[in-house]
Amino acid sequence: MRNLLCALLLALCTAPAFAALGESGVTASPGLRQLRASALSAQGFSVRESQLPSGTLINEYINASGIIFAVSWQGPNLPNLRELLGTYFQQYVTLSASAKSGYRHTAVRSTNLVVQSHGHMRAFKGKAYLPNLLPSGFSVSQIQ
To answer: Which residue among 51, 54, 113, 115 is buried most deeply as judged by most CB within 10 Å?
Structure first.
């Protein structure tokens, strides 16, 4: 019984840390300390700010349909992009192989996915968004 309980706790601790890009953001993300959540704004989106155990801040931008259309991160560690980008991760990998990238900067742009990431040890920052899911009147500069 103790082994089963330990296995269950381990499974819960290794669950995805946040909802992924393009997925439902209706429920709070497990594994994160939620710092704040804004109400749905007049522009048709809300923002949920959470913090990873590493100290990295994650902002999830959720449209009126409850879908995460953008995410941003800032902190001492790069988040797990496989979890953060979800089903878009493979597209990111494929596009980043031919994208303009530097030692500290990666920029991937396609018609349905944009990822910008930069930083160095202990200071990472980036954002990813789905252009086709941006609310009407939403400016990409609002992704902080």
So the answer is: 115
> Tokens 């400016």 label which residue?
139
Residue 143 lies in a domain: no
Cα(85)–Cα(115) distance, rounded to whole angstroms?
9
144 residues of the chain, pLDDT tens digit each:
333 333 333 333 333 445 789 888 765 555 556 566 666 677 889 999 999 889 999 999 999 999 999 999 999 999 999 999 999 999 999 998 887 666 678 899 999 999 999 998 889 999 999 999 999 999 999 999
Q: Which domain holds residue 51?
A: 2-135
- The residues, any chain, with a CB within 8 Å of residue 55's CB and separated by 6 or more, are 75, 76, 77
Indicate the pTM of the whole model: 0.79
Write the CB contacts of 105 (distance below 8 Å, at least 6 apart in sequence).
117, 118
Distance CA 24, CA 42 (A): 20
For residue 89, tell me if it sits in a domain: yes
Judge whether 141 lies within some domain.
no
Q: Is residue 7 part of a domain?
A: yes
Cβ contacts of residue 91 below 8 Å, gap of 6+? Answer: 110, 112, 113
